[in-house]
Amino acid sequence: MRRESGGCYATLLRELELEEPTLYQNFLRMNIETLHFLLNLVGPRLQRQDTVMRTAISAGQRLAITLRFLATGMLVTIFYYHLIHFT
Question: Model pTM?
Answer without folding.
Answer: 0.68
